[in-house]
């Protein structure tokens, strides 16, 4: 029988082969699909097909603690972000094989400038898409209300920056009053995008209660800002109907969220200072307008007071002239109205007399006409008198009090009444 190798011996052979055949370190481009840090750093690397986005290669990679602390610090300093899934990396690796744990790439360096370039490329692509959609400048077209006092705040409830923001608004030097309501959100890590979008949706449900939205972040790692550079979050903020102020606490280049917002400040306290300054400017403008109006009214009152004094001095002489003019005018009116009244009365007397004569004649004529008409009607009525018809030899037959005009309505046994000139005859129909 052939002697078989143990699994350990086989794996040892593989390790020795790799150490002999692949003694060098290699720079490799890959996407980080997963990362775990437990002193040492353990990564899952992946490469996807550019057209279908289907994974075509996968590998495990390790970075030991002694190297990882140096690599991590340098990467975050240069890129302003911590490593997270989805990042494109250029890693310097050495092939390793362990008899118990299998194959892995040992990471000895990461080039942060490669990732920085890829991040910049992604940012530019997002910016280009936002401009193509016509939403890049939508927020800046909104005007912050003059009395921006009702503030919807998106922040982590436990963040020191949120407390600083509220305290500064409360303790402002001018005694200005602000109302704030917190909409809690995760402000670092992979859940930033969806968490802030959810908060924006919640604000939109009661949008009539707010003047502006403030997105602030303080106390977190300055390197953990990737969540603010996403297309979905930028689109939601750009299309939001209220002005959005950002103060997410970092000194590096603006995030896409900063670019798309109405107003960008560096820190939560700067956001509070901006709102206080804005309302103070409004207060000062109102105070200046109040003072100007007060001065204008004062000057107008003084002018009118002097004018009244000058007029009061002239009133006695003006009144004498005015009184004489009015008396003369009233005399003329009296004479004119008396003459007109006399003329009008004479005219009305003549008209009334003429109309009375015409009325008398018309009434007499109408009475004669009506008398003649009544006489004619009396003659017609006499001619139609049934008694006169009976006196000429005619008779009237009645059935149940009504005249009979059709014999077919009568039947045997019916009693009828016949009236003649002298008397009444009752008959039974056989």
Account of the 3D structure:
The protein is α/β, with parallel strands linked by helices and 430 residues long. The chain folds into three domains: 7-124, OB fold (Dihydrolipoamide Acetyltransferase, E2P) (Beta Barrel), CATH 2.40.50.140; 135-281, Hypothetical protein af1403, domain 2 (Rossmann fold), CATH 3.40.50.10550; 388-428, no CATH class. Helices cover 49% and strands 21% of the residues. The strands form three sheets. Strands 1-2-3-5-4 form a five-stranded mixed beta barrel. Helix 2 packs parallel to helix 3 (112-133), helix 4 packs across helix 8 (268-383) and helix 5 (192-205) packs parallel to helix 6 (231-238).
């Amino acid at each position: 029988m052939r002697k078989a190798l143990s699994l350990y011996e086989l794996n040892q052979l593989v390790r020795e082969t790799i150490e002999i055949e692949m003694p060098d370190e290699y720079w490799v481009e890959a996407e980080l699909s997963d990362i775990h840090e437990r002193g040492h750093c353990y990564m899952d690397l992946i490469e996807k097909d550019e057209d279908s986005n289907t994974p075509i290669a996968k590998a495990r990679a390790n970075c030991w603690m002694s190297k990882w602390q140096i690599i991590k610090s340098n990467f975050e300093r240069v890129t302003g972000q911590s490593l997270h899934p989805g990042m494109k990396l250029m890693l310097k690796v050495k092939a390793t094989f362990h008899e118990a744990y299998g194959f892995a790439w040992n990471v000895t360096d990461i080039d942060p400038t490669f990732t920085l370039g890829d991040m910049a490329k992604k940012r530019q692509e997002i910016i280009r898409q936002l401009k193509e959609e016509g939403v890049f400048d939508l927020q800046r077209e909104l005007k912050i209300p003059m009395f921006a006092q009702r503030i919807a705040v998106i922040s982590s409830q436990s963040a020191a920056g949120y407390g600083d923001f509220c305290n500064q608004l409360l303790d402002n030097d001018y005694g200005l009053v602000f109302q704030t309501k917190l909409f809690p959100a995760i402000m670092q890590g992979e859940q930033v995008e969806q968490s802030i979008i959810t908060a924006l949706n919640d604000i939109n449900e009661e949008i009539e209660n707010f003047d502006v939205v403030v997105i602030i972040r303080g106390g977190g790692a300055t390197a953990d800002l990737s969540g603010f550079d996403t297309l979905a979050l930028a689109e939601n903020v750009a299309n939001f109907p209220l002005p959005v102020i950002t103060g997410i606490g970092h000194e590096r280049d603006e995030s896409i969220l900063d670019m798309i917002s109405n107003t960008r400040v560096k820190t939560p306290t700067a956001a509070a200072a901006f709102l206080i300054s804005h309302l103070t400017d409004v207060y000062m403008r109102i105070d200046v307008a109040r003072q100007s109006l007060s001065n204008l009214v004062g000057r107008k009152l003084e002018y009118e007071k002097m004018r009244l004094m000058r007029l009061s001095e002239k009133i006695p002489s003006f009144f004498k002239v005015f009184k004489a003019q009015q008396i003369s005018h009233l005399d003329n009116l009296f004479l004119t109205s008396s003459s007109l009244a006399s003329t009008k009365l004479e005219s009305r007397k003549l008209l009334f007399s003429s109309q009375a004569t015409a009325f008398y004649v018309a009434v007499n004529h109408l009475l004669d006409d009506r008398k003649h008409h009544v006489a004619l009607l009396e003659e017609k009525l006499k001619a139609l008198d049934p008694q006169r018809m009976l006196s000429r030899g005619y008779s009237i037959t009645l059935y149940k009090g009504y005249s009979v005009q059709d014999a077919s309505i009568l039947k045997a046994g019916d009693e009828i009444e016949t009236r003649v000139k002298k008397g009444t005859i009752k008959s039974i129909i056989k």
